[in-house]
């Protein structure tokens, strides 16, 4: 679902319908986030894309938040142990990452409400 919605977002952008593209990019990202084990690399890419579209729409705050979240995802991917390592701590690492993501979302929502 995430890939299909991302493709829709790209089509809307190609058509010059940037606001609709941004909405589809958000839905694609949320779809990826709802997966039991989201692909963090893909999630980072989706946050980056949403950030670029938000910037095109003039929403610098949202763009900045998306870039920050993408950087967090990339850092999590970079710090993950290689596949041949013991993954016993991975559930705790993912839970910590999820807590950071939720806190970032709450922060972004609070900022949006303040505006």
Topology, number of strands: 0
Overall mean pLDDT stands at: 87
- Please summarize the sheet with the most strands: none
What order do the SSEs take from the amino end to the carboxyl end, as H and E? HHHHH
What is the CA-CA span between the terminal residues?
31 Å
Which shape, going by the Cα principal axes?
globular
Helix content: over 70%
Q: How much of the residues is beta strand, in percent?
A: under 5%
How many distinct helices?
5
Structural class: mainly alpha
Q: What would you report as the Rg, rounded to the nearest angstrom?
A: 15 Å
Taking pLDDT < 50 over at least 5 consecutive residues as the criterion, the unreliable ranges are none
List the SSEs and their pairings.
Elements: H1 2-14, H2 18-33, H3 40-56, H4 60-79, H5 90-114
Helix pairs in contact: 1-2, 2-3, 3-4, 4-5
Q: Your description of this structure?
A:
There is one protein chain. By secondary structure, the protein is mostly helical. It is built from 5 helices and no strands. The radius of gyration is 15 Å and the shape is globular.
Q: Which keywords apply here?
A:
115 residues; mainly alpha
Give a summary of the structure in a few sentences.
With 115 residues, this protein is an all-alpha fold. 79% of the residues lie in helices and 0% in strands.
